[in-house]
Amino acid sequence: MTIVIDSDFCACYNQFVILDKLNGNRFTGEEASMSFDAYGRDIHYLRISLTDKCNMRCVYCMTEDMVFQPNEDLMSTAEILRLVDIFARLGIDKIRLTGGEPTVHPDLIEIVRGIRAAGIDRISMTTNGLRLAELARPLKEAGLERVNVSVDTLDPDRFRRVTRGGKLDKVMTGIYAAETCGLTPLKINAVVARGFNEQDVIDLARLTLTHPWQVRFIEMMPFGDVAGFAQDAVVSQEEIMQRIAAELGPLTPLEDGRLDGEARLYRLHGALAAIGFISTVTNPFCASCSRVRLTADGRLRLCLLRDDEGDLLTPLRNGARDAELESMIRNLIWRKPWGHGLPDGVIPLERVMSQIGG
Ligand code: SAM
In whole angstroms, what is the distance from residue 178 CA to residue 185 CA? Predict the structure, then answer.
């Protein structure tokens, strides 16, 4: 027997969930615009990959000879902003810009302004920091709230090796510029790959003793052509914690060990900022996931680690009205999978991280 669940049913069920969540007495028309998935998760956070192109080639992110998509296959600035308007109406109130490398997009400032104009003021960006020195101030003025900068090691030679050519001093200059311009609280993202930078977790953790920068260790995830590398070179949270504690003293859990967003936070004695662990593979946080992702080629990706996506760009280019796109997005969000399938051997092979955005 096949059960067909149509969009009217979804909308109706969503309202039940909303009513239930709001305890029946705080329901307003505005709250009805929220987007819930079939598990009752309130999806209000969108990550947008502005481009798949990047000015680095990190070993865990893409192959050295990565071929980027032609520009005409990617969303234009107008298309991005039209979708942002629709997402805002559906209850998205938080956006992270990512890539590829978002700072290589020629219209980055205009995009930030357009997101603000859509009524969304929680705007952040994940960047490799190479262009932050020149962009931090105009980005802040356009309405960007804060940045996460990816830095996997503080050793310039190893940095060059992990990123296949990146210049650490330029990134550090960018980080200080972002701090000066108020793109704060600033977070440092580090991916640890065996044989590349596992010894550097100590220096990275030490940063929290002298700077108010949260340092977050992101567990390596398998994607596409680099899936094999990511699985072979992964360094566990436990090992990273042991290395840090052996050198810098105990890590005290914060928030009683509960999740803060996607990270579990700890603090070194006397530190100015926390150390976070995002262990998507070994310690997933699917139950509290509130996000979906828009790829640079206009697909709505429902789970970072699953290849389920819905094409929004083709209907948009074929003249779909806002109401139609809204309904497509609602239906896609409705079928957001519960969680990733890595324990069952389901590995996302269609894309690498630079095409999804992290
Ligand atoms: N270019 C920007 C940057 O370097 O931050 C934004 C895009 S990058 C894909 C976003 C984040 O994903 C970065 O922090 C990067 O380290 C992380 N990342 C890339 N590939 C990964 C992988 N296989 N597993 C875990 N994190 C990964």
Answer: 10
